[in-house]
Design brief:
Order of helices and strands: HHHHHHHHH
Number of helices: 9
Number of domains: 1
Helix content: over 70%
Strand content: under 5%
Largest sheet: none
Length: 224
């Protein structure tokens, strides 16, 4: 195991332990998800939602849940005053990928919870192809994590962190959202994974591009 991999695991383990102690992101994500889905279920009542409307509502909830819970990765370092120590002891690349790994876990957990609650509580929300639905949620979660990790690093030193996060995150996530809503709708209609392969590939390519750009930018950003 190389030194970079060990450092990446160490950063991820540190953030995971810190989150399990404070549970800030977990509590924020859980409360937001439950309240959001419950309000939408109450407002919809017994009205049956079309797959298009249901997929759109799921994505809106996933976006705001992600901006609520995934922005703490670098902000918490600034608040605790540990940023300088992290810069002195760990190279930029392991820091980025360690933070990305934790944000991916949070995004996967919150998005799975959103999907499950939505399907249980909303009338008419039925998944025709479970495999395709899971694939879309998983790839979308990686896209969320990739986009919002680098944005969190950019705004960590800003005085208006809460306001900037969704504003900067939306343009980056918009292409993911456009593709994701369509793929999620098709999965709910019953299209198998094979028929969604092209769209999933485009989501993967866009996510890979975000990670590649973030990898280049983070080295300069972290040393500033």
């Amino acid at each position: 195991m190389t030194n970079a991999v060990r450092q990446t695991i160490a950063v991820a383990r540190k953030d995971l332990q810190s989150e399990l102690r404070s549970r800030y992101a977990l509590n924020a994500l859980g409360m937001f998800v439950v309240v959001s889905v419950a309000v939408m279920a109450f407002a919809a009542g017994t009205e049956r939602l079309t797959p298009g409307v249901a997929s759109g509502l799921i994505w809106v909830t996933m976006f705001f849940a992600a901006t609520t819970g995934l922005g703490r990765s670098f902000v918490s370092e600034e608040e605790r005053g540990t940023t300088l120590l992290l810069r002195l002891t760990v190279a930029p690349t392991p820091v980025y990928f360690g933070k990305l790994a934790i944000n991916l876990l949070l995004a996967l957990g919150s998005n799975v919870l959103i999907a499950l609650l939505f399907l249980m509580m909303m009338t008419g929300a039925v998944v025709g192809s479970v495999g395709a639905f899971v694939a879309v949620v998983a790839v979308s979660s990686l896209g969320f994590a990739a986009a919002l990790t680098i944005i969190a690093a950019i705004i960590a030193r800003s005085s208006s962190k809460g306001a900037l996060y969704p504003v900067l995150g939306f343009p980056v996530i918009l292409p993911l959202m456009i593709l994701g809503v369509d793929l999620l709708e098709r999965a709910m209609l019953g299209d198998p994974v094979g028929e969604l392969a092209g769209g999933l590939g485009m989501l993967g390519i866009y996510t890979a591009a975000i990670v590649a750009v973030s990898y280049v930018l983070f080295d300069m950003l972290w040393k500033e």
